[in-house]
Amino acid sequence: MTEPLPSSPADPAAPVEHQRAHFPEGMALDCGAWVAPLDVAYRTYGTLNAARSNAVLVCHALTGDQYLAERHPVTGRPGWWEAIVGPGKPIDTSRFFVICANVLGGCMGSTGPRAPMTDSDGHTRPWGTDFPNITIRDMVRAQEKLVRHLGIDRLLAVVGGSMGGMQALEWAATFPRMVHACAPIATAAHHSAQNIAFHEVGRAAIHSDPDWRGGRYWAEEGLVPAKGLSVARMVAHITYLSEEALARKFGRRLRGASALTFLEDVFEVESYLRHQGSTFVRRFDANSYLTITRAMDYFDLAAEHGGELAAAFRGTATRFFVASFSSDWLFPTSESRALVRALNAAAASVSFVEIKSDKGHDAFLLDEPEFHAALGGFLRGAAERLGV
Amino acid sequence: MTEPLPSSPADPAAPVEHQRAHFPEGMALDCGAWVAPLDVAYRTYGTLNAARSNAVLVCHALTGDQYLAERHPVTGRPGWWEAIVGPGKPIDTSRFFVICANVLGGCMGSTGPRAPMTDSDGHTRPWGTDFPNITIRDMVRAQEKLVRHLGIDRLLAVVGGSMGGMQALEWAATFPRMVHACAPIATAAHHSAQNIAFHEVGRAAIHSDPDWRGGRYWAEEGLVPAKGLSVARMVAHITYLSEEALARKFGRRLRGASALTFLEDVFEVESYLRHQGSTFVRRFDANSYLTITRAMDYFDLAAEHGGELAAAFRGTATRFFVASFSSDWLFPTSESRALVRALNAAAASVSFVEIKSDKGHDAFLLDEPEFHAALGGFLRGAAERLGV
For binding substrate, which residues are annotated in this chain's numbering (chains A, B) (predicted)? Predict the structure, then answer.
């Protein structure tokens, strides 16, 4: 199951070995293409019980990956959801078997633009921009194959924030009998025009970087469109933070210098690259960024169900927990309320909480005790109903 | 006064002649540098009365210029404030003598990065990135020289939206006896951390464009950092619109195509360049964009007055009209309210209106009858008090 990832031009360090499920037959995509073989890289935490009834699937966000509760193999940083996932934490790994898969289209071991493919002339090279257009539903179908592969017929819960929340919703809509409980957090049932536009700016910045080379940067050893990807990350970064959080994050430098120099290097691309230790452009593939942001932008659950969001959930037995954060302007509370209205219209069981926070969209990743208590309570309740 | 602008590498068309005031002695800047000579390009509309008491100065926004009420000499489009300025309009050119100057640091004839300077070795070349750091107060000081040069001791009103509103506020604070009435619109007394961050993204995009050449793109005929400047304009464009306005503007294209292809070319840089007819990168200089956005980011009127915004207006006899737009998230109503509180604390005469609009920040440029009626009424009242 575990095999070495080919040395990546974006990662000058030794190749990272990712735990993977391999499906030689591949899978069909919404766009009509067939991708084969299919690899799904994943991590698990905790132990699957004998009844195979305690599995919680966590879906990651745009630039996340499967390393949610352990040291990241490229950056060396803690897992991105260690605040939430671990023994005694809201997603309690002493009680639940937690699964997290790198999304289809990602760049941490799952099949995506950085993965190798065999060209018509028999040469092996990365998919690059030849990787087909994918959807959130394609990501979910790849995860379903992994879940079946792990011998699990029904998930106790599917949980995710931001793009992870889109996947959680898609799971409940596409595989309703496999999802006992669903927690879409800081998300929406479709991507807004403003969010699409911000993504378009990021993609334009990547396309404008001459090192992108029309998507074929991998053809030259060590070349990545670092500046374009950094600009994309910068603009996204702003949307993840509230005004208060942004002022707090960069406030120290604003206060420390004179009125006429305080801006120098606050957010300038070179200093931003230094500030991020270049880890983002090292760990993340630009073509994956293009592919995954497009998948988010395509996402429109109502459109997949005849234009009516409630139709996506009609007759569902899944229990839902919807959470938003008051200062999140990327996925504002109004989007969660629209989702809750549709779930109510579908006669679904749903609880909703808006968490007061000044941390913006990123709040779902951070220390928010009220959110942690609410999510933990929801999962305990779901587990008790199943006798887990 | 009128002299040809040197052929600009950003403008492949015939050189545009701008009406200009020339000040050989130049002026001192807040940063300590001295810029000489100083040219201030401007346009006037209407007739100065014998008492020289009917002059209204309009200050333009970041990418605006002095062509506010006539066909633009580069783009051929109508003036940017023809909805507001003209005979019988809120700023009534049959009653008022309207002045609009290209800001210091601009690229439409006033001294700025595109203007010629003589190097230490005697060569003449554009200022480029050697142009000093300027402030909103420097822009206002250059305008004050123009106003004096036109034989005007006191302005009936200073009016401006967005960065133009910053200038209007700076006029009232720096030259209080020259300003009878002041209308800062869709603006703030300081630039927020979020707004600074969006500007930083734009600057990073320009810096990342290899055609920027460290700011020396002018050294090669016809070369401009078009892609970087376009990405900067794209991200700014999003901040100028509300979610509703963005969906409306790009909604037609979103609706017209299939779910899997609707994103093609919505906002992608090449299509954006086509969509804008490349006029922005032709008419606007990238180094000016860097210079002016920095001036906006430095702006903090309270900091110029010991940290207390009210101190900027203490003892003022100027009458203020503050207007904001409900869906403007770049300069939200809360910023205008903070300004009004400071003006009240300074015992200034101030009226405030929040206009209900779904057009976002751009509303101040568009057809907003309630706003037009309120601004027109304020100016008529100010004129009547002066017997104009």
Answer: 233, 362
Is B243 within 8 Å of A193 when comparing Cβ atoms?
A: yes
Q: ipTM exceeding 0.95?
A: no
Contacts of A205 (CB under 8 A, 6+ apart): A228, A229, A231, A232, A235, B205, B208, B231
Is domain B2-191+301-385 given the CATH code 3.40.50.1820 in the classification? yes
Q: What residues contact A176, with CB distance under 8 A and at least 6 apart?
A: A313, A315, A316, A317, A318
Architecture label for domain A195-294: Orthogonal Bundle (1.10)
Q: Which residues of A342-368 are buried (b: 16+ CB within 10 A; e: fewer)?
A: bbeebebebbbbebebebbbbbbbeeb
Per-residue b or e along B182-215, where b marks 16 or more CB atoms closer than 10 Å to that residue's CB: bbbbbbbbbbbbbbbbbbbbbbbbbbbbebbeeb
What's the mean pLDDT in A151-173? Answer: 98
Indicate which residue of B65, B285, B297, B328 is catalytic.
B328
Return the amino acid letter for A6: P
How far is it, in rounded angstroms, from Cα B274 to Cα A236?
25
Contacts of A201 in chain B (CB under 8 A): 231, 234-235, 238, 267
The domain covering A2-191+304-385 belongs, at the CATH homologous superfamily level, to Alpha/Beta hydrolase fold, catalytic domain (3.40.50.1820)
In the predicted model, what is the mean pLDDT of residues A376-385? 98
From the centroid of its chain, how far is CA B80? 11
Q: How far is A313 from chain B (nearest CA, A)?
A: 20
Structure tokens at B316: 């003022």
- Closest A-chain CA to B299: A259
CA distance B345 to B368: 30
Contacts of A137 (CB under 8 A, 6+ apart): A30, A170, A174, A304
Nearest to B259 among A194, A298, A329 (CB): A298
DSSP string, B191-232: --HHHHHHHHHHHHHHHH-GGGGGGTGGGSTT---HHHHHHH
Q: Which of A208, A263, A267 sits opposite B227 (nearest CB)?
A: A208
Cα A260 to Cα B297: distance, rounded to the nearest angstrom: 10
Instruction: Tell me which DSSP letter residue B300 carries.
Output: B
Q: Where are the domains of chain B?
A: 2-191+301-385, 195-294
Size of interface A-B (CB pairs under 8 A): 138
Give yes or no for a contact between A56 and A181, defined as CB atoms under 8 angstroms apart. no
Question: Per the structure block, which two tokens stand in for B324?
Answer: 């904001």
Mutate to test the interface with B, among A135, A203, A238, A248 (most CBs of B within 10 A): A238
For residue B65, the number of C-alpha atoms closer than 13 Å in the C-beta half-sphere is 28
What pLDDT is stored for residue A383 in this prediction? 98
Give CA–CA dist A75/A78, Å, rounded: 9
Q: Distance (Å, rounded) from C-alpha A299 to C-alpha A293?
A: 10
Per residue in A215-237, pLDDT (tens digit) is: 999 888 889 999 999 999 989 98
CB–CB of A30 and B260 under 8 A? yes
Among candidates A347, A357, A346, which has minimal Cα distance to A323? A357
Sign of CA dihedral B246, B248, B253, B257: positive
Helix (H) or strand (E) holding A184: strand A179-185
Q: What is the pLDDT of residues B42-94, one digit of tens each?
A: 999 999 999 999 999 999 999 999 999 999 998 899 999 999 999 999 999 99
Q: A294 among the known binding-site residues?
A: no
For the record, the structure tokens of B354 come out as 């929040």
The angle at the Cα of B265, spanning A31 to A30, to the nearest 5 degrees, equals: 10
CA distances from A286 to A38, A234, A281 (A): 20, 14, 8
Interface test with A, best of B138, B194, B227, B274 (most A CBs within 10 A): B194
For A322-344, what is the mean pLDDT? 98
* Alpha helices in chain A, H assignment, sequence order: 136-149, 163-174, 193-208, 226-240, 243-256, 269-275, 279-283, 286-298, 333-345, 369-385
